[in-house]
Design goal:
Blueprint lengths: L12 E9 L8 E11 L3 E10 L10 H8 L3 H5 L10 E5 L2 E4 L4
Length: 104
């Protein structure tokens, strides 16, 4: 086994607290969201946007993973991608659940 992180340890870690944001002027499809910073190997950092889609639904209409992402201010959504070499820059929370935006 190569030295480094033990098996099962995430490659990235969330750092700090989320910064909340809302819809942008001009009719964004985003209702609310949070910006998280993640770090790898002590120096490389990135940001991940977790965006809740605007829609005609209430939170109880959402799948459990989406409800948890909203309740945690996006932390559980980010945590789901911390073991990837290249985590997404944008995660969308919607009636479809929590998924990475391939374009983001």
């Amino acid at each position: 086994m190569k030295p480094g992180k033990p098996r099962g340890m995430p490659k990235w870690a969330r750092i700090g607290a989320a910064t909340a944001f809302g819809p942008t002027p001009g009719g964004s499809e985003i209702q609310v969201g949070w910006l998280w910073e993640i770090r790898r190997d002590g120096s490389e950092t990135r940001q991940i946007r977790v965006e809740v889609s605007r829609g005609p639904f209430v939170v109880t209409d959402l799948p459990a993973g989406a409800r948890n992402a909203i309740r945690s201010r996006g932390a559980t959504a980010v945590d789901a991608y911390l073991n990837q070499d290249e985590p997404p820059a944008r995660i969308v929370v919607s009636t479809l659940g929590v998924h990475a935006d391939p374009a983001g």
